[in-house]
Amino acid sequence: MGEKVLILLPTPTNKLLAQWQGPYEVVKKVNKVIDQVEMRNKRKRPRNFHINMLRKWHEPLMATSYWVQDVVHHHLPFIKTLNVVYPKANHLMMSM
After folding, report:
1. Integer Cα distance of 46 and 37 in angstroms
2. pTM of the entire predicted model
């Protein structure tokens, strides 16, 4: 209990298209395949979800910023700021 999870839910615009949403908090394990999840911003009561609709939420590590200097035509330097967050969440990306 108290574990943070992502839930595979239909998108607001297309009920046949699902996205991982969250994180939400598991409040109770109903049985070995059903978890009760508190969705504070969606409903007042906790909802039950099968575990195949849930994925464990991993807190992102601290975002880091660093400066990269590029030189264009050897005389026009400009600066780009890159924000990098590790680790990458490739397992949350949808593939076509």
Report:
1. 5
2. 0.60
